[in-house]
């Protein structure tokens, strides 16, 4: 069930990114989220990524979660926002440690509920494999093309991503471990009282939006679909995402008031 945490403080948000990405890839979204909701926001790098790039990534989502929870420094239940593989870690957290989680939002995530060709679009596979064979600058350009539908900021965003890759390079072995862990992951039931929010981008070139619809159907919850955003929805339309998160929090407050 997880450790007992105080419920007297308002929930803060913990943000989790996905395959090979780190906290800095959120850009200014965490600060904007904190300002929008008047709360605290913390990003945690997954094992093998970002500040933990020198560590070996564990072979399962459950083992990744164990390391993330150690770094979370919980003193109250948290709201979890997980993008892609980060959504798998967040869902595992909510399912197995419900007393630690006040809310759950998944963006462009997937699970074994969907077939492999939806979890990773066939057209994306050659590009993904190519990222393992190219220098970092070209690799980040490929990832940008694959995950971002709004590309008007390439001249400012790509140099930052290349710098992150040079400063905190993700080992190829860790990429393979993360892919293997994600491919094996099976979503479990949500605890009573927790209603997840599922978000996806219709323009996602990496993961088919039908994966998000499968999750929503499995958990009997709603899915909200952005009309054009790609896999990196926080990059493509942060304003839309902020509005969705604000609506989610307001719905939680209304539900709590009715109890």
From TrEMBL:
Record-annotated AB hydrolase-1 domain positions: 15-243
- Species in which this protein is naturally found: Oceanimonas doudoroffii
GO MF, one term, reads: hydrolase activity
Sorted alphabetically, the keyword list is: Hydrolase
InterPro entries the record matches: AB_hydrolase_1, AB_hydrolase_fold
Q: Does the keyword Calcium apply?
A: no
Name of the protein in its database record: Alpha/beta hydrolase
Tell me the domain of life. Bacteria
Pfam families referenced in this protein's UniProt entry, alphabetically: Abhydrolase_6
Using the record for this protein, list the coiled-coil segments as residue ranges, or answer none.
Answer: none
